[in-house]
Structure formats: structure tokens, C-alpha cells
């Protein structure tokens, strides 16, 4: 598993992707088809159906992902990478706005997707498997510069850590709500409390 440098501000590359352009295209097509198929049909979706949607042969799918677990792991890590890239892309001109946007628009959406994928992966892996540990470390490394910038700008209280902040977001996203807007409002209210001194 790829190690994470917590001092790096770049989004970590967690996945080993093919290098040839045509192989990379097939790899990405399979992941996109799998994401869509699992969202529609759930974990029982056949790999043959995913290959059909991706417009590749089943042999091509198996060359990239030898089994269902490998495909689920790649989907999971792909979601983590997307959230990490989102942190690196945000502007530092408004440190509080960048941190809030990442947590509300990127991390909260990722957690909702993650729950479904993690539920399927837990059929193959323990909860403390390296896959999950590496993903957590990647998110901490991606969010830390945003939090630090907001703290240095005096926009966020000094005594909060990125680990605590992500735990807060996870807890709120898991609250049963009648509407997504209600959950987002609760999250923004909680985050607003970070802006006041201890």
C-alpha cells in the first residue's frame, strides 16, 4: 500500500493505474461503469454487466481487476483521491471558505458514498485493514493545509485538529435526516462553532 507523507500538500496517488493510454482508458471506463452499476443495482451486480456497460470484454475487466474485491478497492480509493484532489484545488484567498467548501461539498458527499462501498468491502476486509488506514491518512494529509491556513488567518480556533474535524463531519453526515438540505444546515451550524475562540 502507498505510504502517505503528511507534510505533502499534493493529493496522494493511492491507485496503481495502467501507464499505456489505451489501457488507462479501459481502466477508467470500467471504474465509471462499476460506479454507475453498483449505484443502480447494488453489490449483487455481476462483473459481466459492468464489462458490458464499459464496452470492454470480460477478459479486459479481469486483467485490470482480478476479482470483485479488487474492483471495490479501486472504486473506494478513487473516491478518496477525488476528495484529496479537491482540497489541493481550493484557493487560499479565503481560508475559511476553502475549508468549509471542502468539508461540506467534498467530504460530506464522499462519506455518503463511502458508507456503501465500505459496507461491501467489509465482507472481504477487517475494519482496521491497511486500505482504510491509508485512506484516513490521505484525507488527514489533504485537509491539514486547509485547516492550518484557516487557523493562521484567525478564522478557526487553534485547538481543533483535522482528525477531530473529520470525525465531526462523519458524525453529522450519519445523522438520519428527512432532507439533504437539513443535514447540510446542521453541518454548517456545527462548523460555524469552529470560528469562535476556546
UniProtKB/TrEMBL annotation:
What keywords does the record list, in alphabetical order?
A: DNA-binding, Transcription, Transcription regulation
Provide the GO MF annotations for this entry: DNA-binding transcription factor activity; transcription cis-regulatory region binding
Reply yes or no: does the keyword Transcription regulation apply. Answer: yes
The record ties this protein, via PROSITE patterns, to: HTH_TETR_2
Transcription: is it a keyword of this entry?
A: yes
Q: Which InterPro entries match?
A: Homeodomain-like_sf (IPR009057), HTH-type_TetR-like_transc_reg (IPR050109), HTH_TetR (IPR001647), Tet_transcr_reg_TetR-rel_C_sf (IPR036271), TetR_SbtR-like_C (IPR049445)
The HTH tetR-type domain covers 24-83
Pfam families (UniProt xref): TetR_C_43, TetR_N
- Please give the DNA-binding region boundaries: 46-65
The protein here is known as: TetR family transcriptional regulator
Amino acid at each position: 500500500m502507498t505510504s502517505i507523507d503528511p507534510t505533502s500538500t499534493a493529493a496522494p496517488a493511492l491507485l496503481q493505474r495502467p501507464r499505456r493510454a489505451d489501457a488507462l482508458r479501459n481502466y477508467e471506463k470500467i471504474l465509471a461503469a462499476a460506479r454507475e452499476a453498483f449505484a443502480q443495482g447494488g453489490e449483487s451486480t455481476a462483473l459481466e454487466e459492468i464489462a458490458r456497460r464499459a464496452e470492454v470484454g470480460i477478459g479486459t475487466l479481469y486483467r485490470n481487476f482480478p476479482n470483485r474485491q479488487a474492483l471495490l478497492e479501486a472504486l473506494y480509493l478513487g473516491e478518496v483521491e477525488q476528495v484529496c484532489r479537491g482540497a489541493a484545488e481550493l484557493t487560499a484567498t479565503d481560508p475559511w471558505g476553502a475549508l468549509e467548501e471542502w468539508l461540506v461539498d467534498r467530504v460530506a458527499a464522499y462519506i455518503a458514498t463511502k458508507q456503501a462501498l465500505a459496507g461491501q468491502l467489509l465482507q472481504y476486509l477487517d475494519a482496521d485493514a491497511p486500505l482504510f488506514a491509508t485512506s484516513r491518512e490521505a484525507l488527514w494529509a489533504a485537509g491539514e493545509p486547509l485547516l492550518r491556513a484557516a487557523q493562521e488567518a484567525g478564522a478557526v480556533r487553534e485547538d481543533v485538529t483535522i482528525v477531530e474535524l473529520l470525525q465531526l463531519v462523519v458524525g453529522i453526515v450519519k445523522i438520519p435526516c428527512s432532507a439533504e438540505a437539513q443535514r447540510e444546515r446542521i453541518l454548517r451550524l456545527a462548523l460555524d462553532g469552529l470560528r469562535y475562540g476556546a
